[in-house]
What we know:
Strand order of the largest sheet: 2-1-5-4-3
Mean pLDDT: 84
Number of helices: 8
Low-confidence stretches: none
Largest sheet: 5 strands, antiparallel
Amino acid sequence: ARMGMALLDTDGHFLRVNPVLTEMLNYDEMQFLQMQVADLIHPDERAWFRQPVQAIVSGQKAYVEFEQRLLNSAEEIVWVKIALSLVSDSQDNPLYMVAQFDNRTEQKLMEDALWQQILRNEMILQTATDGFCIVSDEGRIIEVNPAFAALLGYPMENLLDTSIQELEVDSDSGSFAAHIEAAAETGSAQFEVFCQ
């Protein structure tokens, strides 16, 4: 991945930037040289950003890495992973910081979309009137919804990690294993079980 790079003074002012960073945030080099990193930080996080910078400049840490929301020239959020390290002179006096900016916006959007999907699925599962259970490859229950527990008359926590076969009346381990195998191969399988 192309990495944004910058040299910063010990107050966080930009001294030099590479073309990747100018493209990432849509500022030209001259605009960067009139700014501090703090000017790009999302307002909700500006106070927090001083902590890792102070840790580097004071010598508490030689290297820090963290995720941060920046704002580009259009005031749009750009998620970046920032890595900071300090360059000192021969007497250990701090000279400047080297900053790397890894654009994580696309990954963050994908993670957020996945999390939203998980929450939607969980809401559907918990409010459905049909009973649902999620079963491992070995046939053990790893999640149930309230309707499934009510249907069988068990508390939800008693069903977790239980084998479906333990709940079946006259279970045939061979046929059940075949159903699980079919579901693994095709993505789904429908079959009837009689539970006790």
